[in-house]
Amino acid sequence: MLIFEEFIDFCERIFDASKDDESVYSKIYDLIYERYKQLDIKELELHNGAPEKIKKFMEYYSGLVRLTPERAKKRILNSFGMLQRLREEYLIPVFASDNSTVKNKKALSCSELKTEIKFVKGIGPKKAKLMNMLGIENVEDLLRYYPRAYEDRRRIVNISDIIGEEKVTVSGKIVAAKSTRTKSGMWILSASITDETGVLIVNWFNQNYLRNIITEDKSICLTGKVKYGKFAGWEMQSPDFEILEDSEIVQRIIFPVYRVTNGIHVSNIRKAVRNTVKYADCLDNGLPSALESKYELLPVSEAVKGIHFPKSDYHLKKCKTRLVYDEFFFFQLAALYARKITDKKNMGKAKIFKGTLSGELENSLPFKLTSAQKQACNSIREGLKSEYPLNVLLQGDVGSGKTIVALLGMLDSVEAGYQSTIMAPTSILAQQHFENVNNLVKGLNVKTELLISNIPEKDKKEIKARIKNGEVDIVIGTHAIIQDDVDFDNLGMAVIDEQHRFGVKQREKLINKGQKVDTVVMTATPIPRTLALSAYGDLDVVIIDELPPNRQSIKTVLISEKKSKELYDFIKSEIAMGHKAYIVYPLIEESEQMDLKDATSMYEFLKTGPFSGTGVGLLHGKMKAEEKDEIMQDFINGKYSLLVSTTVIEVGIDVPDATVMVIEHPERFGLAQLHQLRGRVGRSHRKSYCFLVTTDTSPESYGRLRYFSETENGFLLADYDLKTRGPGEFMGVRQHGVPNFNLGNIVEDIDILENARKDAKEILESDPGLERHEELKIYLYNNYKDKMSLIDIG
Fold it and tell me: What is the DSSP-derived secondary structure letter of residue 245?
């Protein structure tokens, strides 16, 4: 059987596919008539007036075969408007106008929105504590606690009509119910349900409290997956259900399904929302009416009601569109508005320079800048010349030359009379930056200093004095730079490397060490454009999407664990040539829960077995920072030729003679993380290799790893990872600060995200202080004030 909405969707697809093909015009009516005969009449009759309208619709197209092709095509093109009007008339409720919403709001006591959840009918103190764990403190929280999924119960299936193991909704009477306990202590509640066409056996496991609810002679509606048992016939395990009163008709509606915790049933939340949904009329709108009209958005009150109790898929889509737009728009507006406030607060003198120092460095380089590097340099240079502080996210693939771009900007700042600094997350990385910068600025009369925690106190004190007196032009260091006793004479530019490794407060401390500090935050983890838009709504994103032409390609090979001996022999041959190798494992130590190799056990095996007589080092995240630095330095200096590690080495470490990267259980990592690990080799003219050693041969896993082995572009990998695994699984999402949107999905809803950002920018460009948008400004401060105080840090 077909429900009304499915029939409309089918007709639209047929008309759309046939509109430009005259040869099939004569067949269209027969196709839609076959589906018309399959309509579920009982469901259709729930839409008052719909049976008559559908009948007229069918009559209008019954004569299609007798029309000329021109007239037939015109009638087909008319169908799209007719089908849309049917949707608007029957698939969404009659929505309240703005005036009636205001009227409802006046009739309600809107202070009820702040009523504690324990006072809501059917909740009470005990359940309230559990709901608090879900983030539901009051009625407004409950209304904003959106369903995680939906059960479509518009189609009720007769038990005798079940034809395959699928998810269905059935309705019937409980004719028998029995609760038993197994020898292992498990409670099983079994019930027999009949709808007069057949019998369905339903089982619930370890839910013995249901024995007082699932009792004989009660009417029940169940939704779940059925399977056929050899002895009992059709069975359903632990379905969602509703007990119906004697006079209650089965509700052919879309039921909301909520995320719950032990002690709370989805029906508890569903009933609580039903009892309070009228207060959605009290929710602040916030959005300018011009934007509501522009996209034909539902009023927020109706969207909240509909997101909990949608009438159709079409209705649900319209509700979700409104709420997703709100999430994206207000986040983008808050980010951009906070940026403007910060820019105004920190506004200072534009930096004046000719580019002499940066020009001398560029001319002395043994290579030419790529066009992408030049564009990035120009973006930063223009920002330095502005009276507003520069706030840039500089992202580029491994080896794309972010550091040289940042250094050229720092030299422009130094020429303008300011100090610059680079803050790195580890001492090793800071030392690498220091050595590279020192080599590059030789002969430029630029003074540099390294400030890290393991420098002797006496030397540290002298370095800090020189920084304070303005004797140092570029300071390179770690967290040591942001200590309270480090003062700059005139800090003008801050570069933060692998910025997600620092907390917001740490970055804020660095920026506050100067007056108008231009900021460049760098990341070697390619972030898809969609992710960058949502995570860094207030930053100017500058991308270096081109690798230097002399960059070595890394041969990536996907192999079975059975080939380990051959792999070890290959690593030995590379070490014999003076090269180094990494072997990376997903775990530090052996786990009983996961059948995976671990770094600690494999280190013992490798150093006493296949690589005895070879220097083998162990590195993992549980070690102290000083110990990690020492081991890494020993690896760089040649004490170890093989480094057994976890992903602690994934970022920033530059060992030019490392040519082999082996990643065990690569299926456990995201593609962006694998790409970072692969980027630890191939950092010189030597041919380099990356081996993915896997035991997972599932099509999904193998497909991902095959794509990775054939692709070296980090941005393509990041997009692929985001689309296949989703934003929640993307490497570094939590670290990168991506907001936790309730409904918005930055992959699926990218069009809404881009529109929201564009609209927010246009409003602020025409009204920077939001003086002409007073209600919007108030809404922003009421709902985003805490977030805005940190957004501008980056």
Answer: P
